[in-house]
Amino acid sequence: MARAIAGKQKVFELLAPRPRPPYEEVWHLWAVIIPRRSITGRLLWGTVLRRRDDGRWIYKKYIASDYTADYRKSASTLVREDRKAAMRRPAN
Question: Mind giving me the DSSP string for 25-70?
Fold first, then answer.
């Protein structure tokens, strides 16, 4: 009997929506060789910003700034912290 209850709980866990990782909510600097459509519908290539939006990538024109190094550093820190948190989570 306990085995059947545990099995039902596992099904509910699998069907429940999972929280999105924090690195999916930030823009990433990305090099695009094949032109892509931006949010506004224009074609973009070269260095662009991109992020996940409900299972698909969206792109935005990148305008170089003095804060590029700070942006890359903060994005890599965010990814590193998320990986550490994932390693600390108990395996199901």
Answer: GS-EEEEEEEEEEBTTS-EEEEEEEEEEETTEEEEEE----TTHHH
